[in-house]
Amino acid sequence: MVEIPSPSGQEAELAAFLAGELRDWGFTTRIDEVGNVIARRGPAAGPTIMLIGHMDTVPSRLEVRQEGTVLHGRGTVDAKGPLATMICAAAAAEVGHAQLVVAGVVEEETFGRGATHLLEGHRPDAAFVGEPNGWSGVGIGYKGRVVVRYAVCRPAGHTASPEEKATEAAIAFWNKVVGYCEAHTAGSRAFDRPIPTLVEMGGTIEEARMTLACRTPPGFDLAEFERFLADTAKDAVLTIDDRTPPVRVDTRGAAVRALCSAIRAQGARPTLKLKTGTADLNILEPCWNVPMAVYGPGDSSLDHTDREHIDLVEYVRAIDVLRHALETLADELVQAEEAAAAGAR
To answer: How many CB atoms lie within 10 A of CB 272?
Structure first.
């Protein structure tokens, strides 16, 4: 998988590879309208557990090489390692009357087109999203994201003139956004703070533009923030390209419990993690409202870096954890379905 380049929007080759590979592993497969790979195993009539991992990576390429048990390459951590973990665990798990659906989705690194399309035709009974949290970590929350484009013009003038220049207006706008976020911090943790990032900036004293992204925590008042942006921008042109809500799952849910039990069975103490980025969990969980958790091997601090790599020993251990979790969760879902049917009779 890592040897097949798949930057966002160019996942077709990897999708075709996975569709063929998963058929050989006992799944029925198809590629949907947006390019997601959908692979099913087990009876359609039973409860469904869905495993969602993204096929795309950021655009830059890295040499793919293995040194001992360490595999280097773009996507090893974010997030072909977690997706491969899901495929292997789903192929090996004994889940009785439950159905497993693995979805390799497109364009997570941009605006979540693949995950958004899943909402049209799927609603599982429980689900896992594949992202790196370490083999003993369980992701339970991701911040939201707002992407804002700003463009401003000012009349031509001499650099010595006291009138505001377009570049100065843009810098003043950015500084006010930073001040707003600092004033609306809900706690001491990074997860509780809105974090603005100046993604891109350019221009002249006559025309200036910038793109900024703000990672937002649960409870952040997005409507108020947008009013602030509009008031602060004055005569500049604002465009909001993305409004991804933050998400935090119920740690008492069946998916979290199944993963924690499986990690303990491997002799480790599970770590519940709140992440400052966003993931497909943000898109899916609010709409599906079913037990969900995020799982996958790898060190997320290596995401998008030139040092991206994964230890294959950890990868194999993560497969065992997820297989155990799938079997536990499937048993719970089947028993609940049988009890409901018995009650109805």
So the answer is: 16
